[in-house]
Design goal:
cell membrane, Permease, transmembrane helix, mainly alpha, 76% helix, single chain, DUF318, UPF0718
């Protein structure tokens, strides 16, 4: 009979998604990308209105620019999930939780991971004995300040390195603040449900890599297309006077773009291109869009509720949003 510790390490196989759902999702994504690339040529004769042309140009530009970074981020994130054992982090982090938090937050700079992958990776860290505060810091920092995200931000804002620095500073500060806040308020509570390992014991590494890559690409790619369409629509449909009014008020513009980031749920490898297209707004407001999105949005709230329990999500999401907005305002005032 296996020891209790061995039993705890094992996890049930995750339920497979219906084949029809995956096929339909893939077909829809391919269709949307094809329309993004060739839509203007196909419908050029039918739609000649200047607004439609502007919408199509912005939609295609945001999608095509962001897609390579999205693919790279998904590949690296899947490799991290499949080939780097969770026990590595438990050994690398300091034993004292207060010191483990900033180290875990800083590790997001060198370890790639999109939002879709950060939740299960953080769950695996907790399941392997990493203190929840450090796992939460990694959960927030990995999708926000990894090399792919910072590189895409530099490409989206050419000649403006201060935007990249501001995004990194704000994001790493938020991850540490939330990690320490958990130590003060959540340690020992029943808010957090520590899950079992995501993949079954003995699952081949390449199978984990394949399934993680496919899952993250299908979901993140769909959100990218939706986000590009929403950004283009915002610039074309919403009256310019309204946008100018919102953009002229710093606090209101930061709140509006922060809420927009929550609703759009764009992958962090691509959100900088959407933010760069919102030229009516200040750099501080666009910083809020890039800072809020990777750490709290509708899909992340759902993932966190399903993984860590609703008691955790209902407290964590509002706290994260408030800290992110305040950090964006402070860092924007300081650096931008």
């Amino acid at each position: 009979m296996s020891a209790p510790a061995d039993v705890a390490e094992k996890a049930e196989k995750p339920p497979k998604e219906p084949a029809g759902t995956s096929i339909a999702f893939t077909a829809t994504l391919i269709l949307l990308v094809a329309l993004a690339l060739f839509g203007r040529r196909i419908f050029a004769g039918a739609f000649t209105d200047e607004g439609v042309r502007t919408w199509a140009t912005m939609f295609v530009g945001v999608t095509v620019q962001a897609l390579p970074f999205l693919v790279l981020g998904v590949l690296l994130s899947a490799a991290l999930t499949a080939f780097v054992p969770a026990s590595f982090f438990a050994k690398a982090l300091p034993k004292h939780p207060a010191f483990a938090v900033p180290v875990a937050a800083a590790s997001g700079v060198i370890l790639p991971g999109c939002e879709c992958a950060s939740v299960p990776v953080s769950a695996a860290l907790m399941a392997r004995g990493v203190t929840p505060a450090a796992a939460i810091a990694f959960l927030l920092s990995a999708p926000a300040i990894n090399p792919v995200v910072l590189a895409s931000t530099a490409v989206a804002f050419p000649g403006q390195p201060k935007v990249v620095i501001a995004r990194a500073v704000a994001s790493i500060a938020i991850s540490m603040i939330l990690g320490w806040l958990w130590l003060l308020t959540g340690k020992g509570s029943d808010w957090l449900k520590i899950p079992k390992n995501r993949h079954a014991e003995g699952t081949p590494k390449f199978e984990v890599f394949r399934s993680s890559m496919l899952h993250d690409f299908l979901h993140a790619g769909g959100f990218l297309v939706v986000g590009a369409a929403a950004a283009a629509t915002l610039n074309v449909v919403v009256p310019r006077a309204w946008l100018d009014h919102v953009a002229s008020n710093l606090l209101l513009s930061v709140l509006v773009l922060g809420l927009l980031a929550v609703l759009l749920a764009i992958c962090s490898e691509a959100d900088a291109f959407v933010a760069a297209s919102l030229t009516q707004f200040s750099l501080t407001a666009r910083l809020a869009f890039m800072v809020v999105g990777p750490i709290v949005d509708v899909k992340l709230i759902a993932l966190q509720a399903g993984t860590f329990g609703p008691k955790f999500a209902v407290r964590f999401a509002p706290a994260t949003f408030v800290v992110a907005i305040l950090a964006s305002l402070l860092v924007g005032w300081w650096l931008l």
